[in-house]
Amino acid sequence: MSKSFNDAERNYDTHDKELLAIIKAFEEWRIFLEGTLRPITVFTDHRNLEYWRKSRSFNRRHVRWRLYLADFNFEIHFRPGKQSGKPDALSRRADHADIPPEAEVMIPDKLFANIAKEEQDEPLQTRIKDEQKRDPSLDDIIEFLTVKQENAPPSIKKAYGDYQLDEGLLLFQDKILVPDNDNIKREILKLYHDSPLVGHPGQQQTLELVSRYYTWPGKKGWIKSYVESCDTCQRMRRAKAPVLPLKPLEVPPSPFHTISYDFITGFPKSKGMDAILVVINSFTKFGHFIPTSSKATAQDLAELFVTNVWKLHGLPVKTVSDRGTTFTGKFLRGLYKRLGIDPHFSSAYHPESDGQTERVNQFIEHFLCSYVKSDQMDWLHWLPLAEFAYNNAKHSATQKSPFQLLFGRNPVMNPSEARIDVPEADDMADRMTNKWKEAEAALRISKERMKGPDKPTPLSFTEGERVWLDGRNVNLKTKSPKLDHRRLGPFKVTRKLSELAYELELPETLKIHNVFYVGLLSKVFKDPGRPLIERPPPVTIKGEEEYMVEAILDNKRRGNKWLYLVKWEGYGPEDNSWEPEENLEHSKDIIKKYYRDRL
């Protein structure tokens, strides 16, 4: 006999698929096999099935199967596949190939491009199970949990007390134990650091995200090295500048009692939008990022509040905003008065008292810089994912994610993370109350620590070393400085002039003085497993060397000629250059696309 798996059975791990084959065989030949006096011999090429009856750790599916198999007298014996020619041949029939139906696209692939690139033939957890069985350091633990658990001495039971098997997956303290496999560890970190669902968070936030579901020895060091050597993060984060002492407002008593908001402008126009209204709840730190127009009137902003904030969370008691005509116009003042809202504006010349939204603004710009295309026109598509990533990350003030404080749990990022054991309503209410008390205490401690940091020690670099250059004072040829790389390079240090000044080797397109203050330079971190993106060499087209054009960013007319601002493939914004049309003979399709996108 030969049968193919249905959709649900395709998701079983290897152990359960092999056991299911035995179940199907007994169902097919039940009239011949049930209640035999002599034991039936079952041959399998999956050795772990020999110990299945002895296991003391199993799930509900295994319980059902045990009850069914109790009517049969049988023994399982291991026999390698090469000695079982006929069954092995049947398992390889083309019409039984384990190929799922083609998925129907519901959401544009570009929103999940960074995730799609990492898809593998097998689900991540299936590969982790297989690698756990291959990891010799885990052999004793798996054997203890599957065979020797009852007869083991107390010392062994205590040593392995935090381990358990869940459908063949080895857990440590209810988290998946990642085997000693660098590729799997990198894939996990790509999901919880590189993915647009998280938005390239820092070391601590990446550690917290990974630790929700996975653990392994040396995890913290792995994450530190991975984040430090991330090419995108190094380009997007600026060297830390001196911070003014903060003057925090009082701790609010509950979620959405107090909100702060700000208005970010300067984005390239996309679907009529070129600005973002940022609204932050001061208690949970939950945020809403609302696209709008820089020409929005006071009435428009009020409508955005009603549509995106008030309908979800009710009326805030207090609002906090920097003084400015956009937010303090007559219409909004009249609206606040009519609705009974007491506006608390930052003191004149002291905008740091509302530093909360300023930090969120930096996060938004960092996130969008990490994922937008070179023409920067698709920032609007990434904004919902930026909001999700911000609310999913642990906040330094509350030590919990905004999503968790508002809803009592962290969001599910993929189906394998979904919990089956849902807490009852009373337990959830008690848990939420405790979380709010913890958050309030953490906020008070955080506000007491809001003071200026100690003066940092300047970095030192050697000649020949490659460094990042802070791009804040460099006029790059791009549409929106807000979506530019924060750091340029890396560039080679050609000479150390003093402890505070260095000379760099710059590209010819960057027409600026090549001596820089040390405070504008940053170390380049490398990971052998993830080399930095190198600039590609030119390609030969019709006997001539040419560099590949990634996108056209702008155009202008000079005399009788059209010039195009070119973003070169594999190069940073510091290498963007104006080129005459005749130099772009082999890039006519890209020029046509540029004009189509402008319509």
Question: Can you characterise this structure?
Answer:
The chain has 599 residues and is α+β, with helices and mostly antiparallel strands. It has five domains: 9-96, no CATH class; 109-228, Orthogonal Bundle (Endonuclease III, domain 1), CATH 1.10.340.70; 258-414 and 423-448, Nucleotidyltransferase, domain 5; 466-523; 539-598, Beta Barrel (OB fold (Dihydrolipoamide Acetyltransferase, E2P)), CATH 2.40.50. The protein is 34% helix and 19% strand. Strands 9-8-7-10-11 form a five-stranded mixed beta sheet, sandwiched between helices. α9 packs across α11 and α16 packs across α17 (379-392). The longest helix has 24 residues, at 425-448.
What's the arrangement of secondary structure elements?
Elements: H1 14-28, H2 30-33, E1 40-44, H3 60-69, E2 74-78, H4 85-90, H5 113-116, H6 124-134, H7 139-148, H8 154-159, E3 163-166, E4 169-172, E5 175-177, H9 182-194, H10 203-211, E6 214-215, H11 219-228, H12 231-236, E7 258-270, E8 273-281, E9 287-292, H13 298-313, E10 318-321, H14 325-328, H15 330-339, E11 342-345, H16 355-371, H17 379-392, H18 402-407, H19 425-448, E12 466-470, E13 487-496, E14 501-505, E15 515-517, E16 521-523, E17 539-541, E18 544-546, E19 549-558, E20 561-568, E21 577-580, H20 588-598
Parallel strand pairs: 1-2, 5-6, 7-10, 10-11
Antiparallel strand pairs: 3-4, 4-5, 7-8, 8-9, 12-13, 12-16, 13-14, 14-15, 17-18, 19-20, 20-21
Helix pairs in contact: 9-11, 16-17
